[in-house]
């Protein structure tokens, strides 16, 4: 049970409840939250602390939910920001964006250059909804010119929520650490049942083969995953096959 210091009582309470947080011993504050709120003096550095950032984080979720609530069926497309416009992977991204729109999906990317730009371009030119979820980074170039609906985030975890919440599946083109991050997070969500009917398609068999060999080799052999987990990944070089895999997960008759 929580104790409170009173005149004549022990100088240090055993336990102090600060909302859902419990403090004991040397962590018990010298004043209450209300006292600090109503005190007209004191430092103003509290506006820069982590608890205050919760409101900024909350605002990112509110803005994202509000902007994407009426998006309709969509697919998140990932790939490297370093993909050059004259690279085969860029044209592949353009085709994927276009085919997804033809299949009735909006296209969501990270909004950056490279493969993301290609997918947004394909979606826009096909007359569909082209979405970009940007992130604040020192080297980011901003949203690409083919984004029709853009939302910028400060926090990766808020942005990641939008990628999953408003997508019916992922199509993953060759990419680096950022692409791997999104890929493996999606795999964990599907594996643990946090999302259902969520296909993950890797495009580019030559690029992804080493990863697949490692997963099917030491990862499976050492029982770090189960045999059915391998089936969570579908690999292809064919754009139509990739889109069909997403569509069929939504409609078994597709």
Automatic annotation (TrEMBL):
InterPro entries: LOG, LOG_fam, LOG_family_nucleotidases. Coiled coil: none annotated. Keywords: Cytokinin biosynthesis, Hydrolase. It is an enzyme of class 3 (hydrolase). Its EC number is 3.2.2.n1. The keyword Calcium does not apply. The keyword Ligase does not apply. Residues 1-39 are annotated as: Disordered. NCBIfam families: Rossman fold protein, TIGR00730 family (TIGR00730). This is Cytokinin riboside 5'-monophosphate phosphoribohydrolase. It comes from Saxibacter everestensis.
């Amino acid at each position: 049970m929580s104790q409170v210091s009173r005149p004549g009582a022990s100088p240090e309470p055993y336990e102090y409840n600060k909302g859902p947080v419990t403090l004991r011993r040397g962590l018990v504050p010298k004043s209450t939250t209300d006292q600090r709120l109503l005190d007209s003096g004191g430092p103003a550095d509290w506006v820069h602390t982590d608890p205050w950032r919760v409101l900024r984080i909350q605002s990112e979720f509110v803005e994202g939910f509000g902007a994407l609530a009426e998006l309709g069926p969509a697919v998140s497309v990932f790939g490297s920001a370093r993909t050059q416009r004259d690279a085969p992977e860029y044209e592949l991204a353009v085709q994927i964006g276009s085919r997804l729109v033809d299949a009735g999906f909006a296209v969501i990317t990270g909004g950056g250059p490279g493969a993301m730009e290609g997918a947004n371009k394909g979606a826009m030119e096909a007359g569909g909804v082209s979405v970009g979820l940007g992130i604040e980074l020192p080297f980011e170039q901003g949203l690409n010119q083919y984004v029709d609906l853009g939302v910028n985030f400060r926090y990766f975890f808020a942005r990641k929520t939008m990628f999953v919440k408003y997508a019916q599946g992922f199509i993953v083109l060759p990419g680096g650490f950022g692409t791997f991050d999104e890929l493996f997070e999606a795999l964990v969500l599907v594996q643990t049942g946090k999302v259902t009917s969520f296909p993950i398609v890797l495009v580019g068999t030559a690029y992804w083969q080493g990863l697949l060999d490692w997963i099917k080799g030491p990862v499976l052999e050492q029982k770090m995953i189960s045999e059915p987990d391998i089936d969570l990944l579908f690999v292809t070089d064919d754009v139509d096959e990739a889109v069909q895999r997403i569509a069929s997960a939504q409609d078994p008759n597709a």
